[in-house]
Amino acid sequence: MRHAKDNRRLSRTTSHRKAMLRNMVTSLFEHEKIETTEAKAKELKREAEKMITLAKRGDLHARRQVEAYIRSHKVCSKLFEDGKSRYNGRQGGYVRVLPTRVRRGDAASMAMVELVDEGAAK
Known about the structure:
alpha+beta; CATH 3.90.1030.10; three-stranded antiparallel β-sheet; 3 strands; Large ribosomal subunit protein bL17; ribosomal protein; Ribosomal_bL17_CS; Ribosomal_bL17; ribonucleoprotein
């Protein structure tokens, strides 16, 4: 039984799932918009919002937590520089998931994941 288990397994082992989500979060902050399946997008949103909340906090411990998760120092620096000014007045909902299309090969529902207020701090 899966009572009180709140994350999706995405048909992957734990280590593969964690690595995939870390890569996707890094790509999202680097490109500010990515397309993936809906299930992955929903899990990505959860992790990305946690990283933005830590960046808004802005202290040393938060920076070290984000550096441990995000795979690029450049992307992490960008997140901490832009995070406070970009999302200061927002209490949550930093990431948007928009359904886009059905993938032709396997009929998977695709979704666009993007940062809200995109371009505000460029």
